[in-house]
Specification:
heterodimer, B: about 80% helix, globular
Chain lengths: ~240, ~150
């Protein structure tokens, strides 16, 4: 069809301008996804490497338990694995900041801080699941469930706290390497404890471990608030 | 949502206007179409969005014809002839030629050349294959050229 005819056809179908368009759109209630739908959708956005790390750390924990003739010796090794999961989780959260995912926020009724907190919650739950599985795996020793939980949770909480604090305070793409160094440092420290300072797992030090556990949980709450506030500072976070 | 609603509003309005020939009713039907479209949220994520939107609009127009006595607003028509402007002679010739087409053929012309829907979307809306649509468009073009020559 030639251009002139197409133009003529276009001219033929000119309707008088609509008069209530703006009014209609200002009052229109768009269908919105519920909180649960958004939360479950976030699971799909978590990279495969996180799930892979989760599975790998589980397998490694099972393996390490079987390798130690004295069950108590496996605790520092297993506890050294949790900061690695913490590191993987932090890199997952950090990608929102690193890649300036403004388009995600623009397309969504939730702002970036809510989205990252949702993802952080999912990863936190995943970390807690991993922690409890580790506690169960390592429960074949004389420490008892509570002591096992405290011994395993402290390095995990410590690495989570430090990583959250670092990504909240320093906003550049290299921050993740700082987190990486710190988490791996904590892991290495735990392995060192197993070799050199095994005595800190004795009954005399239980009080220090327990106090550290409680303090780190409280500190985690503080760091989450700092992290959330730091997300609100982003220039494109209007909501 | 991926459809640009404000842009589609104008197109659906044009589609409805040329069905009912009354601005007020066309706008009412357009708004009803969007409310119905948005209320079926399950469809929004996976459906053939545009075809679905036009099907709702078409059904709403049919409802309008069933329920009300069809009236043409004279003011709307006079406003239209003002908008035709310089190309009045050409436009009148094309309009006369288009008016000789069947209603369904006129609708295809509107969807393809005014609302700029893709062949796929029009075929989905009409419930026919792309090849059938190509054949029909070929026939329409021949008819239009013939009417314009007369």
């Amino acid at each position: 069809m030639d251009k002139k005819l197409k133009q003529g056809i276009k001219q033929n179908f000119i309707a008088p301008p609509p008069q209530r368009k703006d009014e209609f759109f200002s009052n229109l209630a768009y269908p919105k996804a519920s909180f649960c739908e958004v939360l479950f959708a976030q699971i799909g956005f978590i990279r495969k490497r996180v799930w892979f790390a989760f599975a790998l750390l589980l397998v490694m924990a099972f393996k390490s338990v079987n390798n130690f003739p004295v069950p108590e010796d496996s605790i520092p090794i297993i506890s050294a694995m949790l900061p690695i999961f913490s590191l993987v989780a932090i890199t997952e959260i950090y990608k929102s900041t690193a890649y300036n995912m403004a388009e995600m926020e623009l397309a969504c009724k939730y702002n970036l801080s809510k989205i990252t907190l949702m993802r952080l919650s999912i990863l936190g739950i995943l970390g807690i699941i991993l922690l409890f599985i580790y506690v169960l795996i390592a429960s074949d020793n004389d420490f008892g469930l509570i002591r096992n939980l405290v011994y395993l949770a402290v390095p995990y909480l410590l690495s989570s706290n430090i990583s959250l604090f670092v990504i909240a305070k320093f906003k550049n793409k290299d921050t993740v390497y700082v987190c990486c160094t710190l988490c791996l440092g904590i892991s290495a420290g735990m392995i060192l404890l197993q070799n050199t300072y095994k005595f800190i797992y004795s009954v005399d030090y239980v009080a220090i471990w327990s106090i550290s556990f409680i303090l780190l949980i409280a500190l985690l709450g503080v760091n989450l608030v700092i992290f959330r506030k730091s997300q609100e500072e982003l220039p494109w976070n209007f909501a | 949502m991926s459809l640009e609603l404000k842009e589609q509003y104008d197109k659906i309005y044009t589609f409805c206007y040329f069905r009912v020939k009354n601005r007020e009713f066309a706008e009412d039907i357009t708004q009803e179409t969007f409310l119905k479209y948005l209320s079926t949220s399950n469809y929004l994520e996976k459906g053939k969005k545009l075809a679905f939107l036009y099907t709702i609009a078409s059904n709403c127009c049919s409802d309008y014809f069933r329920k009300t006595k069809h009236t043409v607003n004279i003011d709307d028509l006079s406003e239209l002839s003002e908008e035709l402007g310089d190309n009045l002679v050409t436009t009148i010739a094309v309009r006369t030629a288009i008016s000789k087409l069947s209603v369904e053929e006129q609708e295809i012309v509107l969807l393809r050349y005014t609302n700029e829907l893709s062949i796929n979307e029009i075929a989905m809306y009409l419930g026919i294959s792309r090849f059938a649509l190509y054949r029909r468009m070929g026939t329409i073009e021949k008819k239009l050229k013939q009417y314009l020559r007369e």
